[in-house]
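User: Second chain of the day. Same drill as before.
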Amino acid sequence: MTPETRPTTNPWLPAALSLIIPGGGQFILNHKSRGFVLFLTFFLLLALILWTQAYALLVPLALLLLWIARDAYQLARGSQPGWGTSLLLIGIVLYGAAIIVTEVRPTRLVTGLPNVQPYLRSLLNPELFENPTEDFVGVAPIMVPCVEPLPPPDREASTNPVLILSTPCTEVGDLLQVTGEGFKPNESGQMQWVDPLGMPRRATIDGEVVFFEADDNGRFEVTLRVPQAVPLTAQPAPGQTLTHAVRAVQSIPSGRLQPTQTLSLVIEKIGETIALAFLATVMGVVFAVPVSFLAARNLMGANAVTIAIYNVVRAILNIIRSIETLLWAIIFVVWVGLGPFAGTLALWLHTVAALAKLYSEAIESIDPGPIEAVRATGANWPQMVIYAVLPQILPTFTSFTLYRFDINVRLSTVIGLVSDAGLGFLVIQWVRLNRFSAMATAIIAIIIVVAVLDFASSWLRERIIQGKPIIGTKNPALRSLITGLIVIGFAAAFVWSWRVARIEPVELIRGAPQGVALAKEFATPELFTRPTATTAISAPLVVPCGATEPAAPADPGITLSVACGEPGDPLVISGTDLPPNRTVSVRWVLPGGAFLRIRSNCCDTDSDGNLIVETTINPIVVVGDDQTAPARVEITYEDVAGRVQLSDTVKTVVELSAVTLLMALIATTLGALFAIPLSFLAARNIMGDSPLGKAVYYALRTTFNVTRSIEPLILVLIAATWVGAGPFAGVLALALNNIPNLGKLFSESIEEINPGPVEAVTASGATRMQSLVYAVAPQLVPPFLAFIIYQWDINIRMSTVIGFVGGGGIGQQFRIWVSLNQYGAAGTAIWAIVIMVWTMDYLSAKARENLV
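Assistant: Same format as last time:
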């Protein structure tokens, strides 16, 4: 009996201690790791229950506490209890809270089915080819909202055909009668609403798209509902209006079939997608190769200086890898502006970090013999790399590069969600415009391109790993010709990709000061804050003069150059006795409390606490008919009024990080539950050689390969329409992506099992189900669990970005903070993501080591 399992004189003592302090009994019995894990798990679950307010889960938590006490009792008596019951109780609490946090509502899958049906139908009706059309388009401007006096519209109405509206102005949500004249008789068409920016959308009424059919005289009448075409944040000021338009379109087919404009645009963007991926991969290799040598321990272990360089480089690579490409794209958009250049930079940076890590691990696994032999000759470090390292790693490096190019093609399809690059930009625009058939065209193109490139790169990797020549011919002249053509093709592809990506190094340099400042803000998270008290002083401003009398005089410390005036008149605002060298806010304040800053990034007081602001009177302060008090000009500043405490940003990030982790957990579990039974049907050795078995096998394998090509970010767009934006949409999208990924991995594991136990069990007369249970399943549990943990690790990374398009989690808040220029808060989210990814990388790696 070991010292750790020697029984104590009174086993009830550690049991009682574990009831008071979970894990305390295990700790005093010298099972310190076990006690610490139980202590940490119990209180994390308790915090989760209190946060979600799911107090019913206190019952399994109480049972877990009793199990911990029983565990301490058994340990004290010298036995080693198992973890089965505790894992079950932990799972009940964890999944119960996760379902609440991620807002999983299975009923939404049914109630939201009508919303997603247009997406599903569109996949069977993509916009590939069309006949040339003769278009009849009628346009009529309309003002939204109605104001007095109503200004003339800033766009012209069509004259042939003609649209006649029941009113010249309207409000959002009102019904609008539309009459058309001069259209093609007895032909149908579609009604559209055009916003002030000229962007059309389908006109609807009660959720149904409005169509029309002209009569024998080319006339029709329809009713539509006025949509919310302008975001609430961009509404016109009181007393102002915007010009919208109603459009009726008839497209009469004529002539032979030809590619649609949508298909032509998709092909163009597919080229851009491949160009971005190609350029990012090539440039990534150029930078990753030298960095990988600095990140290889066997090359950098000569002295303390090289070891320090190794640790710094590895840490930087891990930080960059932990942040998803889409997050980097947002940062580079702020740095160099919207466009393919920002997307390329994001792909390039992530590629450098990913390839440098893979390359360095390949270097660390090489045969040390040649290195020692070259060192023994007195060779320096560069000579050692050239003559002892490169010959061993070139095949592996090439394989990793092709693998990364495959990944970059997939990422390029969604990088357009935050930059004007690749197919992702088109997909999100078409979804917002309800152009589902156009969206289907893009998705089908993505599937085809990714599948073809996946097959080609897999073929190349296989030949490289097996040591087979890529150029099969043995004719020297022909080999030289083919090699030359490959080199020329590569150079041409690089030049073409450079142009398509619109690489402008000058923009990178020009934006460097802003980029460095941005990096500093991101690197400095908002961890702590101090409560502040706001001080405000104001003075009345009557506009126009004589409209009303001030309800209160001006406060001391603020003076206006005029007490009244007209909109547009000059105004000088003076402040005295303010805190010196302090940033203050100067704003117009309406009687109801609403306010508008006079100027952005305004203003700073001087060393004496004085302030002078020159501006003009804003029309927003004009006294309305129902107002009895004038607007005021206000100067506000904040003073520290309390101790240092955790910032609200940290609290928000911690909560959203928990949501992100639980989203990944639920999605991985759902994906695995569906993938496991499907994987057996996709395993060749299980399905056999019967016609039915082959048909099922090929059907499922093809389905897995096709659906794996669709990025989760695109699936989120559909899921958000299906079940509503939020964490549930993110969970659903990730689960749909996990099913084919895990199904493929699981089926390959099934095909690699040892046939001996299967044959032995089958020879005993067992049925196919018995063979699965007693001969197949025991061999599959370890690799299946390892794959599930690996997928959970991937899902955590994806959960950080799917919120960009309605999937919930920390990514959604990150994008909001960046859009509001709150880079310190966004940096806090970045560091939280890094910590989450690092922690889960470590835990999943340890779990896989123990399972496989």
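The CA atoms of residues 472 and 702 lie 29 Å apart.

User: Great, on to the next one.
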